[in-house]
Amino acid sequence: MQLAAHAEIEIARPVEPTFDFAVACESFPRVLLPLGPLPGVSGAQMLDGAAPKTGARRRILLSDGSSVIEELLALERPQRHRYRWTEPPRGALGWLVRQAEGDWRFAPSARGTRIVWDYRFELTSALAAPLALPIVWLFRRWMAGGLERVRQALEAG
């Protein structure tokens, strides 16, 4: 069984610098903060000395001390940043979710740049759905907050 989360925003900045900031490992701790029981991102490390590119892997360090290993499925500047978890996090999310895939799409808009961020979660079982639904709802809020912080950071400077 799969569940999905969606968030989007318009940012008054050109696409290229918006993409560069939003997908940079160094930006994640600034914009992807904890929300309730959901941890924030405290860091990101490319694995095996790889550069950020399609096919590379990275470790996302979470503020609760856990981590997620992600494979970059598409890193196409300045249009797309798509990745999937190859190892889910520990804790409640890891018990409920077998795999997840995030997809950021960037496009010019009348205001500057539109970012659309979608997540799909493959649950460990259909029985996990009643517990996963409120977490995915909260995850949507977490995504929207992250996009808002991207907007604030870029429009402020």
Give a topology summary.
Layout: E1 2-11, H1 15-23, H2 28-31, E2 41-46, E3 57-62, E4 67-76, E5 80-87, H3 92-96, E6 97-108, E7 113-123, H4 129-156
Antiparallel strand pairs: 1-7, 2-3, 3-4, 4-5, 5-6, 6-7
Tally of DSSP helical segments: 4
Largest sheet: 7 strands, antiparallel
Number of strands: 7
Query: What oligomeric arrangement do these chains adopt?
Result: single chain
The CATH architecture name reads 2-Layer Sandwich
- How many whole angstroms does the radius of gyration measure? 15 Å
- Please mark out the parts with pLDDT under 50 across 5 or more consecutive residues, or reply none: none
* CATH fold field value: Alpha-D-Glucose-1,6-Bisphosphate, Chain A, domain 4
The overall pLDDT, averaged over residues, is 94
CATH superfamily: START domain
Give an overview in words.
This protein has 157 residues and is α+β, with helices and mostly antiparallel strands. The chain has four helices and seven strands. It has helices at 15-23, 28-31, 92-96, 129-156; strands spanning 2-11, 41-46, 57-62, 67-76, 80-87, 97-108, 113-123. Strands 1-7-6-5-4-3-2 form a seven-stranded antiparallel beta sheet. The longest helix has 28 residues, at 129-156. The model has no long low-confidence stretch (mean pLDDT 94).
